[in-house]
Specification:
By secondary structure, this protein is an alpha/beta fold. About 30% of the residues lie in helices and about 25% in strands. The strands form six sheets. Strands 25, 26, 27, 28, 29, 30, 31, 36, 37 and 38 form a ten-stranded mixed beta sheet that branches. It has an eight-stranded parallel beta barrel with strand order 1-2-3-4-5-6-7-11, surrounded by five helices. Residues about 530-585 have low confidence and may be disordered.
């Protein structure tokens, strides 16, 4: 049966040690830069180098998180030196989100394994295949996938599969969230998420509140725990069981690893069928394990993730967004300031218990002496506390459990088995040979154990009582201050030997220090001369016939570049929107999401390119919309769905008429699955463009997509003006108007507050935060996902000079909730300002400039 990796979080050295001692196979950890947990106790350079050695000596692996988006200056100035030191020291892999970072690392460190982060939103093997030739050896699957999708990935890729099995869940598809970024400037794509999903909200529809006041944490999922689902996960073909929690205490890492280690080992010992029978006959085993895990951390209990559920209220923790603790009893009586608690679980001295009335905390206290379940615990409470008979009492800190885990997995390191052979002969130097096995996937070709022989002083003949084998063994077995303990130690003596104890101790210390250094050094490597390395060949995903056609289709000449953009939109007829004066102007792109928005777009000659949203528009009406655009001389692209999962992929592959190959000019993609589908399955020669959630924040990312034949990008909405200047916008369209999606979620706000209402609902729900900011929520039932939009509409209407100084390829206006009249008004003003240099303004509501001025850290 194949080995399955337990991958543990290490937000600190303490967490790393505890997780390794508890039995994990690998840890993922952040350095001082570029990690998705900027506020964890990330390791300094020297400490991280020592951590790599610590892991390797113990037969474990260490993966470095470089899983954020990098701006151009960061990649240029510091990424190479940052990675080089760890690479040379033996780093096992890097976890990467940014394709530019991926390309750069593969060029400069071609034999360093790259793991494609869950932030890449990979939902199928096909998406990961796009990355394979750039050094990606493992895909970290989106958390939203079910077991059938995981099994399908296993069947269709040779890449390793890493999937989350325990810990916090994001409400949004990872890598698709802008909520923290737009609200507070702390970007999840840069490791600084402020967790707005853990805040209170209310939901209303058509002006009426539909969410309960007791269930105000609408966007807060419960933590995932799949301990009871280990057999299904093992059977699905997952290679690495990933635990979330780099921001949590070391006892958490140790306790969760301990639980999964026990269950995985039991499965490997018994096999799938007998393992399932064991738990069927012994339900208390899992019940006790789950209780320990709940004590460590849980939000409103656990869910099993998305492996068996697409979404649902049962997956959410709407009453409380933080640690819920464990229900240990209820209030039996209350007299004055004294309350009696009937216990259903044991409680320990120094546990923290919390009274709750209708889910709300009313009082907490620290237990003085332990009391067993079934007994009464009596405590004094603060005068005036609203404690009533029947109130539930929860434990939020289990002191005995934390102490147990600390003692087992932190206070003492687990030892590495070593072997030794000591030889002493009168008149010759004594010698001590020690060796140990290296069990690491990073050294798959290493078959011989690491062996060290250390020589000591000349052995003297004993004048009186010679040293015995037992006495020598006792001294050599004292390995407390080393990573080792001897599994077997042989002693060879010739003659009546005399050995000073101090020299024996010195020989042992020196030999084991040398062994530890040799085991760590076995992983060292040198950087080759890759400075001129380039990924010269285009991806094998794009065959030569397709490549010959890319960029030569008739519409490419119409789209143009910076040098030819003045030709776009030039007309000799009167302008039908705004002024009658005609002049050359920058090209405009509009995105249409309902058919009523199209008429004013068609009446605007300055709009040359139309994006039709395939996920929003009726498939029956789409051919007619395309025909109307073509009749008016518009260039037409299909804007593909935000998320492409297996059912949608299969449907699109089967129904090729959806692609309208004969009539449209190209496609705008939002994920790697769509790229693979278009290039490899459909072998289209139509132009492919990137939407802004296919992040291009640096030139390496730009080169990566150009390697794949893509030359038109949408500028990131998280870059400010100065950063866009540094990046250069000649290949970029710039979004200047539109309601920005902040979250795309498999969860459904409507379903979780009222009921599931199939059908693409035109009237959005309203999500209101504690600051009374209102966010529209659009339900897309065709693909079963929710989109939460920013409360303020983006508008760069008043930033004409700054925008034009960037010289973008085109300007893009996205229409979402606007009706026909609103579209006409917005277009009129943007045409006035950007095409004819006149003044203009948008009526009504307050607008946002997004990150165009402020940017993100």
């Amino acid at each position: 049966m194949k080995k399955v990796e337990i991958l543990a979080p290490a937000g600190s050295v303490e967490s790393m040690r505890a997780a390794i001692n508890a039995g994990c196979d690998a840890v993922y950890i952040g350095g001082m830069k570029f990690g998705a947990r900027a506020y964890a106790n990330n390791l300094t350079e020297d400490v991280l180098l020592d951590a790599i050695d610590y892991a390797h000596v113990r037969g474990k692996q260490l993966y470095l998180t470089v899983n954020t988006l990098l701006k151009q200056e960061e990649l240029e100035d510091s990424l190479y030196e940052y990675i080089r030191k760890y690479y040379e020291h033996g780093l096992d892999a890097v976890i990467v989100q940014d394709v530019g970072v991926m390309r750069f690392i593969h060029e400069n460190f071609p034999d360093l394994p790259i793991h494609a982060s869950t932030q890449m939103t990979l939902t199928m093997a096909q998406g990961a295949e796009v990355l394979k030739e750039y050094g990606v050896t493992r895909m970290v699957t989106s958390r939203e996938l079910d077991l059938k999708e995981i099994k399908r990935i296993r069947e269709t890729t040779s890449l390793e599969i890493e999937s989350f099995v325990h810990g916090a869940l994001c409400y949004c598809y990872s890598g698709q969230c802008f909520m923290s970024s737009m609200i507070g400037g702390r970007s999840g794509n840069r490791g600084r998420c402020a967790q707005p999903c853990r805040m209170e909200y209310r939901v209303s529809e058509q002006g009426k509140r539909v969410s309960s006041s007791e269930e105000s944490y609408i966007l807060s999922p419960k933590d995932m725990c799949t301990l009871s689902n280990v057999a299904d996960l093992m059977d699905s073909g997952i290679d690495s069981f990933k635990i979330e929690g780099r921001m949590k205490r070391y006892e958490y890492s140790a306790g969760v690893v301990e639980a999964y280690r026990r269950e995985i080992d039991r499965y490997l010992e018994l096999g799938s069928i007998k393992y399932r029978e064991f738990h069927k006959n012994n339900p208390k085993v899992l019940r006790d394990e789950m209780l320990r895990l709940q004590d460590l951390y849980n939000r409103g209990g656990f869910n099993q993730g998305y492996y068996n559920s697409h979404n649902g209220k049962e997956m959410m923790s709407m009453h409380r967004p933080n640690h819920s603790g464990v229900l240990v009893g209820s209030v039996k009586s209350k007299k004055g300031i004294q309350a009696e608690i009937l216990l259903k679980e044991d409680v320990n001295a120094q546990d923290i218990l919390e009274f709750r009335n209708s889910g709300e905390k009313t009082y907490d206290f620290t237990v003085k002496d332990g009391v067993g379940k079934g007994h009464i615990l009596t405590t004094n409470v603060k005068p005036g506390s609203k404690i009533e008979i029947g109130d539930e009492v929860y434990r939020t800190k289990n002191e005995a459990l934390l102490s147990e885990l600390s003692e087992k997995y932190y206070d003492t390191d687990k030892k590495v088995l070593a072997y030794g052979s000591f030889y002493a002969k009168v008149g010759e130097p004594m010698s001590f040979t020690v060796w140990a096995d290296i069990s690491s996937d990073s050294l798959a070709d290493k078959t011989e154990p690491i062996t060290i022989t250390e020589y000591g002083e000349i052995v003297m003949e004993a004048k009186n009582q010679p040293m015995s084998e037992e006495n020598i063994r006792e001294k050599l077995m004292k390995t407390k201050d080393t990573p080792f303990e001897f599994d077997n130690l042989t002693i060879y003596l010739e003659g009546n030997v005399f050995l000073p104890v101090s020299k024996l101790n010195e020989l042992r210390r020196t030999a084991l220090i040398q062994l530890e250094e040799a085991m760590a050094s076995a992983f060292r490597r040198e950087v080759g001369d890759h400075s001129n390395n380039q990924v010269d060949k285009l991806s094998e995903l794009v065959d030569s016939e397709t490549m010959d056609q890319i960029g030569t289709v008739e519409t490419m000449d119409q789209i143009g570049t910076i040098e030819t953009k003045n030709q776009i939109g030039t007309t000799e007829t009167k302008n039908q929107i705004g002024t009658t004066e005609t002049r050359d102007h920058i090209g405009l792109i509009t995105t249409i999401r309902n058919k009523n928005q199209l008429s004013p777009v068609l009446d605007c000659p300055e709009v040359q390119i139309v994006y039709l949203d395939l996920a929003e528009l009726s498939r029956k009406e789409l051919p007619n919309l395309v025909a109307r655009c073509k009749e008016r001389g518009k260039i037409v692209y299909l804007l593909l769905p935000h998320i492409m999962r297996a059912p949608t992929y299969d449907e699109y592959l089967k129904n090729k008429e959806l692609w309208m190959v004969d009539t449209i000019d190209g496609y705008v993609i939002k994920n790697f699955e769509e790229l693979y589908l278009l290039r490899t399955e459909l072998k289209t020669s139509k132009e492919i463009r990137l939407d802004y959630n296919m992040y291009v924040l640096n030139h390496e990312a730009e080169k990566f997509y150009q390697d794949l034949g893509i030359n038109n990008f949408t500028a990131s909405i998280e870059l400010n003006q100065s950063e866009l200047i540094k990046l250069g916008c000649k290949n970029f369209d710039l979004l200047v108007y539109g309601y920005l999606p902040l979250m795309v979620s498999a969860q459904c706000v409507r379903k979780n507050t009222t009921e599931c209402k199939p059908g693409n609902l035109n009237q959005p729900a309203i999500l209101e935060d504690r600051m009374h900011m209102k966010f529209r929520v659009k339900t897309n039932c065709n693909y079963c996902y929710n989109t939460i939009y920013n409360s303020k509409c983006l508008s760069l209407l008043s930033s004409q000079s700054e925008v034009l100084s960037l010289a973008p390829k085109s300007l893009r206006l996205d229409f979402t909730f606007e009706d026909e009249n609103e579209v006409a008004k917005v277009l009129r003003q943007f045409v006035r300002v950007y095409c004819y240099g006149e003044s203009g303004s948008l009526p009504g509501e307050e607008y946002s400039k997004g990150h165009f001025k402020r940017g993100i850290l």
